[in-house]
Write a structure and sequence with these properties.
Largest sheet of chain A: 6 strands, antiparallel
Number of helices of chain A: 9
Helix content of chain B: 10-25%
Largest sheet of chain B: 7 strands, antiparallel
Helix content of chain A: 25-40%
Order of helices and strands of chain A: HHEHEHEEHEEEHHHHEEEEEEEEE
Number of strands of chain A: 16
Radius of gyration of chain B: 21 Å
Largest interface: A-B, 78 and 76 residues
Strand content of chain A: 25-35%
Strand order of the largest sheet of chain A: 4-3-2-5-6-7
Oligomer: heterodimer
Chain lengths: ~325, ~350
Amino acid sequence: MRWPAFTGLGAVVALLLSSCGGAAEISTQASEDAQAIAESLGACLEPGEYAPADSLIAETQSWLAVDVARASEALSSEKWPADRSIETSLSVRRVSGGGIEGPDEEFELRLHGSAQSGIAWANDHEGSRIYVGIGGRDLPPNYALFVLVRDNSGNSYFAGECAYDALYMPLTVKFGASLDTVIADAIGQSGEELANTLGVESDEPVAQNPVVLNPQDADPELLKRLTRSTAVVTYPESWSASTTVCTRIEEGWNDCFALDTPSKTGRRLNVYLNQSRRLEFWLMDSDANLVAPLQLIGSITVPAEASGSLGTIYKVNLSGTLDASGRTIVEPVAELG
Amino acid sequence: MQPPATAYPQDPNNCNDTTLHWGFDSDPLWTADNVDRQQWVRSAINALDNALSYNGNQLISVDEDGGISVQIKDKPAGEYGSSECDAGASIWVNSNYTTGRFYWQVGRHEMFHLAGAEHGGNDDSHNTDDPPTMATCINQSTFNSVNGLWQDDAAYETWLHDGLANRQLNANLGFEQGSSFWAVTGGATTYRTTGGATGPGYFIWDSPGASDYWYQTVTVHTGDDNETYRSVGNAKELDSQYKTYAQASLYRRTVTDGANGNGCSYPDGIDDPNDYSVSGGWIALAESSPGTQVGTSWESVASSWADPATVDGFEFQIRMYGYSIDGSGVTHAFGIDNVRGEGT
C-alpha cells in the first residue's frame, strides 16, 4: 500500500517560491491551472439544480481517506461506469479532527462512477490525496457526498459529474483564496464544528428586536393582555412627506401610516392598548424603522368613554409644523379629538 | 413571497401550462433498493391540484395520462433534478435519495417549473420553518417532512393563473379552500359552501367591531420590479335592517435581501431571498374607505392604487375590516369573500 507522504515539504517549497520575484505571476498561473484541473475533474454534460455546496459538505458525519494506489489498481483492471453509482470495496482510513488518520480498513463505499476521474488524476500526481464524506441524511449511509482531491500543494478539487458547477465554483466564490485552507481545516470535522468552519449558518430570518404588536408577529399571550382599539388620526394637510407616523405603548409598536397621502377624514389605525391606555405617537422614517424613531410627537391617554359596542374608537389630532426635510415637527402636539 | 412564491417574478418562464399531462418513464431506478420513489413523486405532483382560484376552479390541473416525461437519473449526491420545457417537456429527479421528503420537494419543484414557476426564497410566509416548493439553494435536510402545498405555493399558483385582471398577491383569496392561510383577530366565523360572490365558498363573520379584521401575511421579493398595489374585497350584509361597513386594507413592511447574491438563479434582479430581514412597523399602504356601506348583495370594496418606493421586497398583510350593526347597537354577522392584495 502506498500512502503519500505528508505534504509539508511541498508546502515549504511553495512558500519559498512565492517569496521570489514573479510570485504574482506564478500565483496567477497556479490558480488558472487549478481551475482548469477542477473543471476537468468535475465536468458537466447535463446540468441540474444543486444542493448548496457548503451545506452538502457540512452534512458529513465521517471522513474517509481513500488509498489512491489500490483504488487505481482496481480501476486499471475494471473501470467503473461513468454514468451511474457503484458500490465497491475500497481501502480507507477514517479521518478525525486535525487530519488524524486511523488504521487501514476495507469499506463498502457507494459513489458515483464519474468520480473515478479524480482517482486516476490523484494516482498520476504524486502526493495527492482523496477524501470522501459520508453520512448525509436522505442518502444511503455509505454514499459519498463528495469526492475531494487534494494535490501535494494543498489545492482542492472535486471529482465527479458536475462537481465543478455544484461544488468547486460555489465554494471558490464563497471562500476565494482561502478555499484550500478552509477545506484543510474541514477535513475530519463534523457537526457544529464543521458547520462553523464552512460558515453554514441558520437560515432563520433575522428576528426584529422591537416588539411589533400584530397577530402575525407578537406572542399571542402578550396580545391577550392588551385591548384592540381603533384610532382615527387627523393631521395638517401641509404634512406631506415620505416619513411615517407610528404609535407605541410600553409593550411594543402598533401600526403606522405614511404622510405621503393626505386624508381629510383621518387615518384609521389599529392600536393595541395596555391597562394604562397611554399611547405615544412617533414620527419615523419612510420604512418606519423601529430602532431609530425620529421624534416623539406626543402622547394621549385613551378615555374609558371611548369604548362602545363597536369596540374602543377615538379620534386623535396631530399638529405642529413639519419642516422641509419631513423629519422634524416644530411644536409637535398629539391630543384627543 | 416568498413571493407569490417566488419572489414575485414579473414574467413567467417559457413554460406556463395550467394543465399538465405527465407520466413516469420505465426506468428500474424508480424502485432501486426496494424503495418506491414513484409514490412520492406522484403525491408531490398531485398536490399541485390543491390550490383553487377565486371562483373555485383548479389553478393547475395535473393528470397522470402521459405527456411530460417524469424521469429518474443516477446522479452524484447534491444534484437534485431538472426540468425541460422545450423540445419535449420532461423532468428528472436523482435516484440515489431514499426519503419521501426529497422526492416530494424535488418532484413538485421541477413540475412547477413547467407551470411557469421560477425560484423563490426558502421561508414560507405562513410557516417560516418550511421551504415552499420553489425554494432553491437549500439543503435537502431542510425539506418538509410532510407532503403538501404551502401558502406560498398556493399564492404563486394564484399569481400565475388566477385569471383576474391584476396579479394577485395572496393565497385562497376566494375562501374556496376554507380558511386555509387566513386568520381573524376576533369574532365567530361560519363557512358557507354556496352563495359566494364568485365561487361557492365564503365566510359569515360575526365581527366584534371596528378594530377586528381577517388577515393573511405574505412576503414578496420584488427585486427590481416597481409595481403599484391595492386591496380589494367583497362583502354583503345578511339583513337590510342592519348597517354594514367593510374596508379592505393592505399593510406593508420592508424586506431587505442579503447584500451578496447566493449564486442561484432568481428572476427580476433578486439576489438572495434566502437571506433577508424584515424591518420597520406595519405601514398602511392602501385602504378602501372605512365608511363604505354594503347592502344585501355582494359588493366590492377596493382601495386606490399605491406606488411605494422600490425595495428588495415587501411583507404584505392583507386585511378585511368590517362590522354589521343594528339600530340597538348590537353587532351581527355579515359575509366576506375574495379578500386580496393586487399588484400590477
